[in-house]
Amino acid sequence: MISKVSIDGCRDSIMILMTFDNPLLVVLTGPTASGKTRTGIHLASHFHSEILSADSRQFFHEMKIGTAFPVPHELACVKHHFIGHLSIHDSYNISRFETDAIQLLERLFQHRRVVFLVGGSGLYINAVCHGIDFLPDPNPVMRIELKLRLEQHGIATLQEELQKTDPEYAAMVDMANPARLIRALEICHTTGVPYSSLRLNNPKERPFRILKIGITHPREVLNERINNRVDQMIDAGLVEEARQLYPYRHLNALNTVGYKELFDHFDGAYPLAMAIEKIKTHSRRYAKRQMTWFTKDAEMVWFLPSETERMISLIEKSMC
RNA sequence: GGCGUCGUAGCUCAGAUGGUAGAGCAGAGGACUGAAAAUCCUUGUGUCACUGGUUCAAUUCCAGUCGAUGCCA
What we know:
The chain is α/β, with parallel strands linked by helices. 49% of the residues lie in helices and 12% in strands. The strands form 2 sheets. It has a 6-stranded parallel sheet, sandwiched between helices. Helix 2 links the parallel strand 4 and strand 5.
């Protein structure tokens, strides 16, 4: 059952890891407020395992209430990773998450046959499952410059430049999306080669198998759960949490449903009750986008959150 | 009670000096490679409050009714 596996790519010495044959990563995902945290803890305790979070906003320890952190007794049940391990002031990106998660998984799989990746950030889940292309980190000043150009001269200037520097990507990208254009141009500028030439899109081989479990509810039920959870967050002190983070509202981590609406409320844009309604509405839309992403994934096996016994038997079967 | 203003898409509101109407938001669907709880795309027929009148033609003008709202009493 236990074998020795050498990992390529270590410079100084060949690293020997003890690992189970064919360990299993169970991805547990679904839209916001579907019950991932609870179900994840149930499953992970059943298998005496640990949880990696794949939630790009629960990384930040300052954002406990608004991102629905697992509560202390939940965290005590099962060992969690990547929950509150960063500050909103840290710079972090999906590439670093991929590296951190893969390194951790290699360690965990030395003595575990199954580990859980729980969260709703589809892109981050993909990075763990299939990897993303290696790209150098761009100079942060470059993004600021490109943003400034966008503000001053409009999107056309970025579209024209991308058309010239990387016509292949220009032909496939959503040219109306400033974020995509800025990203592509900053890569072109940093590397001196077209972005499209670096987008190899080769799925990486992983030393583990993957089972993807999606949980969701009928839309009306999910909407109801979202509404209730937002009310609970408010009761739990979200307004105060947001008020303390208000000075840092420009940080990317705080461009997040639940915070940005309250920041606007603090600015006097609308009363608190309206901010709360907007948080609910924006959470519903977020859930919709998540579902668009997840339902496209043919590997996803869908369950209601109540069907934990069926999930357990599927996981057991997959472990064989 | 008197005088005004308003009544148009689920919501907030544009609009045509008469030829049956359009934005934002919501809703629905979609995209997605270091911003991803982010960013972006597609999608708008509704008794234009009701009843009459004028007119070839009224949601638009006129009158009345109902409702909302403001001021005066």
